[in-house]
Amino acid sequence: MNPFDLLDSLRSVNADTSRDELLELVMRVEGLGSIAKEAKELRESVMIDWIEINGDLVMEKPDGPVRWYVGSKKTTKVNSVPNCIEALLISFGGDLDKFAGVLASNPFKYGACREPLGEQWGNHFTVSEVPDLKTGKPKRTVQQIDEGNPHVRRRRKK
Predict the structure, then answer these.
(1) What is residue 152's predicted lDDT score, i.e. its pLDDT?
(2) pLDDT, tens digit, for every residue of 114-157?
(3) SS3 of 2, please?
């Protein structure tokens, strides 16, 4: 089934669609995702090889060219969290607002903060539902629990 037929089949799913038909479509989408991931990795590899031999790859567009070139992937990590916090607090003269301004949007592991904060956890973290941009209502998603996988985190029982 080509990707466009798969899309058509997904669009035609309704309450009368059998469980087996829906599961087949689900698995086809999973397979397509795997193929897309492999294709992206292969694209990266062949582009690097091609560019290293032929030079930058340039695509002319009306609003200006797009250029692909080979560079090195870089990551930046803090060397020592405690030392960095101390240095920043010193440089900001102890101003916690300035310090908070240099933190990433969510620097805390909210799950790991539950135990040390205990009852205060809710004072420091807010759990909110993501709204659907079209309706404004909470966005609904399909969630999966693989009961046979021992590495999958289980939901907490309330």
Answers:
(1) 60
(2) 999 999 999 999 998 888 888 888 888 777 777 777 666 555 44
(3) coil
The Cα-based distances of 66 to 57, 60, 63 in angstroms read 8, 6, 9
Strands (E), 14-115: 57-59, 66-68
**Positive or negative, the Cα torsion across 129, 133, 137, 141?**
negative
Closest CA to 141 of 156, 133, 130: 130
Report d(CA 141, CA 153) in Å as an integer.
Answer: 18
User: Which residues are bridge partners to 131 per DSSP?
Assistant: 138
Classify 57 as helix, strand or coil: strand
- pLDDT, one tens digit per residue, over 87-103 is 999 999 999 999 999 99
Residue pair 59/53 in contact (Cβ under 8 Å)? The answer is: no
Q: How far apart are CA 158 and CA 112, in angstroms?
A: 18
